[in-house]
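Deliverable D5.2: sample structural annotation.
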Amino acid sequence: MWWFGQNGYIFKSPEGTLAGVDLYLTNSCEGLAPGMDLSRRVPVLVEPEDIDIDVFACTHNHQDHTDPETVRRLRNRDTTHFVGPHPTCAVYAAEGIESGRIAPAWPDCELEFGDLRLRGAFALPTDDTDLNHMGFVIQFGGGPRIYMTGDTDYSDLLASAAKHRPDVVITCINGGFNNLSHFEAAELVGKIRPKAAIPCHYDMFPDNSADPRQFRASLGLKAPGVRYQELRHGEPFVFSSD
């Protein structure tokens, strides 16, 4: 897997299937909220025109997750499958994606694309601008299962992802705008008990940032035995269950 900042990742299977989630590869959020600094701090490590992926999925409709400009500029739009909740699907359609390539998703749905199995997971919306948040559980073939929380407020229902027995949890930790705080994220990880936990959504915007070391400390308190794994932008990471 590769992390591109915020909640944006690309995953590659042993068979070569590439799936992208919440890829924000522009600076389109700058100036979106007057009075807030939403200019990106993470460089654009790859231009949308250079992305060649099989599945493009989004967890919800906030622009740093479903970015119309990123979708518009993808070079292989005619071969990619586009996945997300219905408001996100509307963005895909507005950007010219043909209906046959759009696959609606919702909590507890199950979709397959080649060796990729994508399951929907519960997420609690963080504000009334989008009431269709969700997470994903991703698995390639018989490989490890990765649970991504997406943006979510805290709810005991988040722990329902434990039924999928994820090996890795990727969780937001920024705490602002009703997202999980570092302590709430660690509490969730403690209920799910994966092998490793990866923090995200703390790095992109000056006015919506957090220190991942707080999550590492909270993880030690709430989920001892779960490995803390901090990724570096653009550097490949291969998960090992050892």
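Annotation notes: Helices lie at 68-73, 86-94, 182-192, 212-222. The chain has one domain: 2-228.
The annotation will be released with the project's public dataset once the embargo ends.
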